[in-house]
Specification:
The complex is a heterodimer of chains A (155) and B (230). Chain A is α+β, with helices and mostly antiparallel strands and 155 residues long. Chain A contains 7 helices and 4 strands; from the N terminus they run H-H-H-E-H-E-H-E-E-H-H. In chain A, a hairpin with a 2-residue loop joins strand 3 and strand 4. In chain A, helix 1 packs across helix 2 and helix 2 crosses helix 3. In chain B, strands 6-7-8-3-9 form a 5-stranded parallel β-sheet, sandwiched between helices. A 4-stranded antiparallel β-sheet of chain B has the order 2-1-4-5. In chain B, helix 4 crosses helix 5. Classes of the chains: A alpha+beta (155), B alpha/beta (230).
Chain lengths: 155, 230
C-alpha cells in the first residue's frame, strides 16, 4: 500500500533476518535492475507503476530471498503483449540463471510452450493429461486437451 | 557396425476427438535402422507422415505401438517408454532437430537463440560459435542483436539451422532444412549436413528437392511402403 518499491523488496529480506539498511537497499536496487525497473524509481510507490512494472516488482520481491521453488499464477495475465514478451524473457532467464523450479498456472498455451518443460492439463479438478510440453501441445491425446489446442486463434 | 537408431513395427494414427472421433491412420509396422554416418531421406507424398515420424523419434508425438530405440550415452532407450525428463536429457545430448519453423520468445536476440544450446561452454565461447554459424549462413552481423521474429522466411530458417547445428549431436532430424533457401545458402546447408555426417552423426531428413536429397543421402525410407493396404 503506502510502501515504496524498495521497501517492498526490503521487507522480504527483513523477514528473513536482514537488518543492515545499506545492504537491504543495495539488494533492492540490484533486483530492480534485474527485473528492468529504472533504479531511480526505488522510492516511488508501486501504485504509480504500470501493470507490467508492478508485475516485475512482484517478481523481484519474491525472488530476493532466493527461494528454490516459485509458484506463478497467470504471471502474464492482463499485460499488454509487448510487456508480456519482456516478462517471459525475464522469467526464462531468471529460471536458467538461478536454477529455479517453477510451477506456473496459465490459460495461455503460447506462454506454457515458451516457459515450461512439462505440462499438466486439468479439467474439473482432475489432471487429464500430462507430459512434455511440446508433446502435449503438438499431439494432445485427451479430448479436452485437443479442444484446447485446436481452439487457439492463429495470428 | 553399431546402430544409433532402431525403429521396429512403429504404428501411428491420430484420433480427432473434436472432429467426431475421426481416426486417421498414418503408417503401420514401420521399420528403420540407422548407423552413425548414415544419411537416410524419408520420402513419400505429402500427408504420408514424414514429419510425424521425425516428431515421434524426437518425442513430441506419441506412437500407438512399436519401438523407437535410440542409443543414448551407450545405452539403448525406448523413446515411448521414457519419462519427460529422460527425453529432455536425450534431446540435449543425443538428438538434434531442425523443424520447419522457428519458434522463439520475441525480444531475444538472434545470437542468444543460436548460442542457447551450447551455453554450457561459457557465454563467450557459445557466442563465438553462434557467430561463426550465422556468418557461414550469411546472416548479416548487424542483425545478430535483433530478434529474428521480423526476419524473412529464409533468414528465420537459417537461424533455425544455425541453432540446430550449434551442437552436433549423434542423431540429427531435419525437416525440410533447405526449403525456402536460395542457392548459395542451400549449398552451405548441404555442406553442413555432410560435415556433420562425416563427423559421425546419423542424419534422418525430409527434403522437398530431389537434388538436395541425392546430395546428402545414402539411402531412402519410403513411407508409402508402410501404408495400411486395407
Amino acid at each position: 500500500m503506502g510502501v515504496s518499491a524498495g521497501a517492498n523488496i526490503g521487507e522480504r529480506l527483513m523477514s528473513v533476518g536482514a537488518r543492515h539498511y545499506g545492504n537491504i537497499r543495495e539488494q533492492a536496487l540490484d533486483w530492480l535492475g534485474k527485473v528492468e525497473i529504472d533504479q531511480s524509481r526505488i522510492d516511488d510507490l508501486p501504485h504509480t507503476f504500470s501493470g507490467g512494472m508492478q508485475q516485475r516488482l512482484q517478481i523481484a520481491r519474491n525472488l530476493v530471498t532466493a527461494p528454490r521453488l516459485v509458484l506463478m499464477d497467470e504471471p502474464t495475465g492482463g499485460l499488454d503483449v509487448s510487456v508480456q514478451a519482456r516478462l517471459l524473457d525475464l522469467i526464462r532467464s531468471l529460471v536458467r540463471d538461478l536454477n529455479l523450479s517453477v510451477i506456473l498456472v496459465t490459460h495461455d498455451l503460447a506462454v506454457a510452450r515458451l516457459l515450461s518443460t512439462r505440462l499438466m492439463v486439468m479439467q474439473r479438478g482432475e489432471v487429464i493429461e500430462q507430459g512434455l510440453t511440446d508433446q502435449i501441445l503438438d499431439d494432445p491425446q485427451a479430448p479436452y486437451s485437443q479442444l484446447l489446442v485446436s481452439s487457439v486463434l492463429q495470428v | 557396425m553399431t546402430k544409433i537408431l532402431r525403429v521396429n513395427n512403429l504404428c501411428k494414427s491420430f484420433t480427432l476427438h473434436t472432429q467426431m472421433g475421426t481416426k486417421i491412420e498414418v503408417f503401420r509396422d514401420l521399420n528403420l535402422e540407422l548407423e552413425p554416418g548414415d544419411a537416410i531421406a524419408i520420402t513419400g507424398p505429402s500427408g504420408m507422415g514424414k514429419s510425424s515420424l521425425l516428431k515421434i523419434i524426437y518425442g513430441s508425438y506419441i506412437s500407438n505401438s512399436g519401438e523407437v530405440a535410440i542409443k543414448h550415452q551407450n545405452e539403448w532407450r525406448n523413446i515411448p517408454d521414457c519419462s519427460p525428463r529422460e527425453i529432455i536429457d536425450i534431446r540435449e545430448a543425443t538428438i538434434g532437430y531442425v523443424s520447419q519453423f522457428l519458434r522463439v520468445i520475441p525480444r531475444v536476440s538472434t545470437l542468444d537463440i543460436v548460442a542457447e544450446p551450447i551455453l554450457h561452454l561459457g557465454a563467450g565461447q557459445a557466442e563465438r560459435r553462434a557467430g561463426e554459424l550465422l556468418e557461414r549462413l550469411n546472416i548479416p552481423s548487424n542483425l545478430w542483436q535483433l530478434s529474428p521474429t521480423t526476419f524473412s522466411g529464409g533468414e528465420q530458417q537459417r537461424v533455425n539451422i544455425a541453432r540446430g547445428f550449434a551442437k552436433i549431436r549423434p542423431l540429427l532430424l531435419l525437416d525440410e532444412p533447405t526449403a525456402s533457401l536460395d542457392d548459395i545458402n542451400r549449398t552451405v546447408v548441404l555442406e553442413m549436413i555432410n560435415e556433420a555426417r562425416s563427423q559421425g552423426s546419423a542424419i534422418l531428413g525430409i527434403y522437398h528437392n530431389v537434388e538436395d536429397r541425392e546430395e546428402v543421402s545414402s539411402g531412402e525410407c519410403n513411407l508409402a511402403e508402410f501404408r495400411d493396404a486395407a
